[in-house]
Design brief:
Layout: E1 6-10, H1 14-26, E2 31-35, H2 66-71, E3 74-77, E4 82-86, E5 91-94, E6 99-101, E7 104-107, E8 111-113, H3 132-141, E9 147-152, H4 154-166, E10 170-175, H5 190-200, E11 203-206, E12 213-218, E13 226-230, E14 235-238, E15 240-243, E16 247-249, E17 265-267, E18 278-280, E19 285-289, E20 294-296, H6 301-315, E21 331-332, E22 338-339
Parallel strand pairs: 1-2, 1-7, 2-3, 7-18, 9-10, 9-15, 10-11, 17-19
Antiparallel strand pairs: 4-5, 5-6, 8-16, 12-13, 13-14, 19-20, 21-22
Helix pairs in contact: 1-6
The structure holds flavin-adenine dinucleotide.
């Protein structure tokens, strides 16, 4: 008598949801459980800039409502944090001490916004943009025609800058090594992309030319709410300050699990970790890439979704290698503006 396999997916983002869907299709009699810290089911973070156009109904960001999971017999456990994984026993532990056994585990726990160590103490004076609540908070804090200071840049921040300019706000970008992350831009090409940002209406300040960012401070009474100070003694007043320095994989719960980790979970081209029944997909993993002879991160909706599908196919008997579908080159549109393939999704 064949035993019913229990597939567990950690994460209800792009990778996790695609994986759960594929697992359900390819192993119809199995149990599929999806665990997420998020209170909301699968929601579209790419669309969060819409809060600056007045959108305040979180339901309009939902991609799969709770009913979708019921219909597909996927057990969705929301507001639930995985705190440890035991690869030997093939069990995971939840924050409230419950333990679950898995036959296969897919880690699709994504990544959180990365903040350079030297700026960590100023976090309380900055606004994040990682989820719905943070997005509404910063939209409410930015007055009409207000001034947003973006530190770093990255494709998430630059995408937001487009909406802020379109909604008549002022945007100053304090540029540096992360300005076009995850795009790898050659030093020689950087000036043309900075010029394109300026053409879009972004005021660009090179942090290095000002001796680096020293601090983020509250503004003086009656003046702008925030002030960024630089090593050369200059400063930049603004209404909100938002850090965009790329992402850092969310995998603390995997420390001690026994699988190999560098910055992300290390996986083979089949997206298998160093444990035969534990796979990873999305922003959390680094994939062995033969042609570069190293483990690489792959970002963007198209890549992340394809990873979720591939991992689920290999968990259910396929043995296919990763082949990135996403074009990763930064482009200039006909009217000389920045265009990133990472801004495209679905
Ligand atoms: C505002 C915003 C805009 C973005 N715009 C773009 C864009 O334009 N282009 C682009 O390429 N990328 C963009 N991104 C990045 C993009 O969202 C990610 O690359 C992609 O969604 C990653 O998908 P994922 O499935 O790997 O992880 P995520 O979507 O990050 O999902 C991770 C999931 O894991 C869960 N989780 C994490 N840790 C635990 C734990 N310990 N226990 C239980 N659950 C856990 C989380 O709750 C979440 O459900 C944007 C991100 C944000 C925040």
């Amino acid at each position: 008598m064949s035993t019913v396999r229990h597939h567990i997916v950690i994460g209800s983002g792009v990778a996790g949801n695609q994986a759960a869907e594929t697992l359900r299709q390819r192993d119809p009699d199995s149990r599929v459980t999806m665990i997420t810290i998020s209170r909301l089911p699968f929601f579209n973070r790419y669309d969060l800039p819409r809060v600056f156009r007045g959108e305040r109904d979180w339901r309009r960001f939902i991609i799969y409502p709770a009913d979708y999971y019921r219909k597909n017999s996927i057990v969705l456990r929301r507001a639930t944090r995985v705190v440890a994984v035991d690869s030997t026993a093939q069990t995971l532990t939840l924050e409230h001490k419950e333990t679950l056994h898995f036959d296969s585990l897919l880690v699709a726990s994504g990544a959180g916004a990365y903040l350079p160590e030297e700026l960590a103490e100023f976090r309380p004076l900055m606004h994040g943009f990682g989820g719905y609540r943070e997005a509404v908070e910063v939209a409410d804090a930015l007055p009409a025609k207000g001034h947003a200071i973006l530190l770093g840049g990255d494709t998430i921040g630059l995408d937001l800058a487009r909406t802020l300019l379109d909604t008549k706000h002022r945007v100053t970008l304090v540029a540096g090594p992360y300005t076009f992350w995850p795009h790898e831009v050659a030093e020689a090409d950087r000036p043309k992309y900075i010029a394109a940002l300026q053409k879009m209406g972004v005021v660009v300040v090179e942090a290095q030319e000002r001796g680096g960012i020293v601090a983020v401070e509250p503004g003086a009474k009656g003046l702008s709410a925030r002030r960024v100070t630089f090593g050369d003694g200059s400063d930049l007043p603004g209404d909100v300050v938002m850090p965009f320095f790329g992402v850092a994989p969310s995998l603390d719960f995997m420390l001690g699990s026994g699988v190999d980790i560098e910055r992300g979970l290390l996986v083979s081209p089949a997206l298998r970790t160093t444990h035969e029944n534990i796979y990873a997909a999305g922003d959390v993993c680094q994939i062995w890439t033969e042609k570069e002879h190293r483990y690489c991160f792959y970002h963007g909706w198209k890549n992340v979704r394809a990873m979720g599908e591939l991992a689920a196919r290999n968990i259910t008997g396929a043995d296919e290698p990763w082949d990135p579908p996403q074009d990763e080159s930064l482009q200039l549109s006909k009217d000389g503006k920045i265009q990133s393939p990472f801004w495209e999704y679905q």
